[in-house]
Every structure is written in structure tokens, then in C-alpha cells.
Amino acid sequence: MSFVEFWPPISLTLSLASINTAILLLAATPIAWWLARSNSRYRELVGALVALPLVLPPTVLGFYLLIALGPDGPGGWLAGLWGGRTLAFSFSGLVIGSFFYSLPFMVQPLRNGFAAIGPEPLEAASSLGASNWQRFWRVALPLARSGYITGAVMTFAHTVGEFGVVLMIGGNIPGQTKVTAVALYDYVERGQWGQAHLLALGMVVFAFVVIAASLTMDRRVDVPMP
After folding, report:
1. pLDDT in tens, 86-124
2. What is the pLDDT of residue 224?
3. What confidence score (pLDDT) does residue 117 get?
């Protein structure tokens, strides 16, 4: 039993979590901004749609993603552009599935961060001649940094801990879709309790470090500058 045995699923998981977090930092920002600032009557309907993965069983979401990514869905058409047949059971499929499953973990902290700004700082910047982009980049973004930190940390950690969705759409392909949570399940299925214990303990330690780091960073960000 050695670390080399654990490294492929760990490396794949870290790559998936990093890519998913980076994509969601960009994609969730306009969604969260609109949810925080819009007066549209459809705002809460959109908010409920974004939050749906929080209450849906992962297998339900994974099932519909499997259909969408399969050869008869949009994923099959997209894969056909480069000669493939499906996006299911591939790393690209894992990224797409993780995006939808982790979306509320990024959107909600950003929405709260933008909502906490209030209209006064943005109105003040507007009165000084700042454009919409300048108001967002120089005023809203710095004031919402706590939301960005929380969203990034929670999204990364949530992606690392995904199981149901990634198993449904990715299966258990070593080096391609076998992430850490699936590897742990595989060890248990095969009765390899020693490896299962080590991997599970590592994930517990990782979760504790992530939560502690998130709370520490939030506290430092919220402390007013002298």
C-alpha cells in the first residue's frame, strides 16, 4: 500500500475541482449579480432553478445529465464535432456535470455578497462618473470579495466530495473518471478496508482544513481596515 496507488484518483479529483471552480467563478458572477440586483418578477424562479441541485437527489440529476450527455442528447451532437459519440463517461462530461451540481455553491455566496453591498456605494461611484464596468470592477468586486472566497472554497470542496453525479455520468474508468469518492467506493466494494480507511481519513482531514481555512479567511476579510 503506497501513496502512488492513491495518486491517480486524487490528481484527477484536484484537476476536476480546479477547472470547475475556475469556470464557475466566471459563469456564476453574472447570474449572481442579476439575482442580487434585478427587480424582475422571474428572479426567484431563476433562483429556485439554480438552487435545485441542493434538494434533488444526486442520482436524479445524474440520470438526466447522463441522457443529455449521451449519444442521443446534446452531448452526443457536441462530441460528434470532433469525431466522438458521447460526452458521458469522459472527463469533459464530469466537468459539465460538476458545473450544474456545484452551481448553487458558487451562486449563493456571490448573490449574498452582492446584495450586502447596498445601492449607496454604486450610486456614489456613478455620481463620480464611473461606468457600469468601473462600478462593478472597482466597487462591487472588492466589496463582495468575501462571497468570492466562500464560493470558491465551497465549490472546490463540494466538487472534491461529489459521488452520485460523477458515478452516474462518469462511471469508474481509471485515469479518466475514477475520482477520489468513486475510488473509495471501489475499495469498499472489493473489501480493501485498509485503503478505504486511508482514503476516507484523507478526505476527512481535507474537509476539516477547507472549513477552517474558509472561516479564517472570512474573518480576515470582514475585519475593517484601520
Report:
1. 999 999 999 999 999 999 999 999 999 999 888 788 878
2. 44
3. 87
Tell me the one-letter amino acid at 77: W
DSSP labels, 198-214: HHHHHHHHHHHHHHHHH
Cell of 184: 473509495
Cell of 76: 452526443
Cα-to-chain-centroid distance, residue 174: 22
Rounded to two decimals, the pTM is 0.88
Torsion of CA 219, 150, 157, 163, to 10 degrees: 140
Cβ neighbours for 142, distance < 8 A, ≥ 6 positions apart: none
